[in-house]
Amino acid sequence: MNRFLPNEKRVEISSIFKWFKGDFDRANGGLAKVLGRFAPENVRAFAASGAYETKYLSYNWGLNDQGSHGRNYSRTNLIFDNIFK
Length: 85
Known about the structure:
Blueprint: E1 3-5, E2 10-14, H1 16-19, H2 21-28, H3 31-38, H4 44-49, E3 53-57, H5 68-71, H6 75-83
Parallel strand pairs: 2-3
Antiparallel strand pairs: 1-2
């Protein structure tokens, strides 16, 4: 879950934005523009300003898995799954 903290001049966003930064820069006009467009309405102007520190959050690897296995799936689970397959 992305967090917008205007009082602290900080955003905390998914690592996806870091991993695919080049794609956001080329196709969408940069991260601040994307965040300004899709952030919750009450923080859009702040998100679009780019005047903040950016912290990237750990990615939730089970995000798209709605079953019990995915609900608590972590990066550690991903590593073990790839080692022991």
